[in-house]
Specification:
With about 240 residues, the protein is α/β, with parallel strands linked by helices. The chain has helices at about 10-30, 45-50, 80-85, 110-120, 160-165, 185-190, 205-215, and strands at about 1-5, 35-40, 60-65, 65-70, 95-100, 125-130, 150-155, 180-185, 195-200, 230-235. α2 links the parallel β2 and β3 (about 60-65). The longest helix has 23 residues, at about 10-30.
């Protein structure tokens, strides 16, 4: 895992986006198309804003949605579908395809089957993601399932994860935060050619330390990235403060 510390959150987001832009351009040149994974949350604001402004042939790019709450309608202010529609899809009308996770599908098993069939056989060129305050990767909270081969799974959200969502202002109370989500699995994320993590803020410092310094363990889900051959962790001074 390569660790880079930037001056502030804006510089972090710019560097992560520029790295991703180059990787996407290389994939298009190599294969004629690119597959990417995009994440949500406050940590991705600066990166996504710069990425969608990149000079790329977006008509050759397919984007896969990383995770979504179970039971939350797409109209809800905290919906990740809404987040990505407003910050990515509406700003990239040429985008070839955006594969959304329908968290309030009436049949979750059918939705998982749809998602898993769609991503089956695809090579993901770039996964953009973050790390949660509890060291989660996507919505794979500790102890994370490192073994499942399914690309998308239904997961239970622990209290620390749910408190983070409330603390970031997405929900008015803890009771309002859903208890389950559809998430891309750890093994699916790990198949990505390149993983680019944007992780700002002091509240992520302990999770960053656990991801980088702890032995690989389901108790620290993002620690699995120590075993990935091309992961870059973009930090600011606050999120890197416990690495010294």
């Amino acid at each position: 895992m390569k660790v880079l510390v930037h001056d502030d959150g804006d510089a972090l987001g710019a560097a992560a986006a520029d790295q991703g832009r180059l990787a996407i351009a290389e994939a298009i040149e190599r294969s004629g198309r690119a597959n990417i994974i995009v994440a949500t949350g406050a940590s991705q604001f600066a990166m996504l804003d710069r990425l969608v402004g990149s000079d790329l042939d977006w008509s050759r790019v397919t984007a896969f949605h990383l995770d979504e709450y179970v039971g939350l309608p797409a109209s809800h202010p905290a919906s990740f579908r809404r987040y990505l529609r407003e910050r990515v899809v509406e700003r990239l009308p040429a985008l070839a395809e955006f594969v959304m996770v329908d968290g309030d599908a009436p049949d979750l098993a059918a939705e998982l089957a749809r998602l898993n069939a769609r991503i089956a056989g695809e090579t993901v060129d770039v996964c953009f993601a973050g790390i949660g305050e509890n060291c989660h990767l996507a919505f794979n909270d500790p102890p994370a399932d490192f073994l499942t081969e399914q690309p998308y799974i239904v997961v239970d959200l622990d209290e620390a994860c749910r408190r983070q969502q409330m603390g970031e202002g997405w929900f008015n109370s803890l009771d309002a935060v859903p208890h389950r989500a559809i998430s891309m699995s750890i093994r699916q994320i790990m198949t990505s050619r390149q993983i680019i993590l944007s992780v700002p803020d002091r509240r992520k410092a302990e999770a960053v330390r656990n991801a980088v310094r702890q032995p690989v363990s389901p108790l620290f889900p993002a620690s699995i990235l120590q075993q990935h051959p091309a992961t870059t962790l973009h930090l600011d001074p606050a999120s890197a403060s416990l690495l010294a």
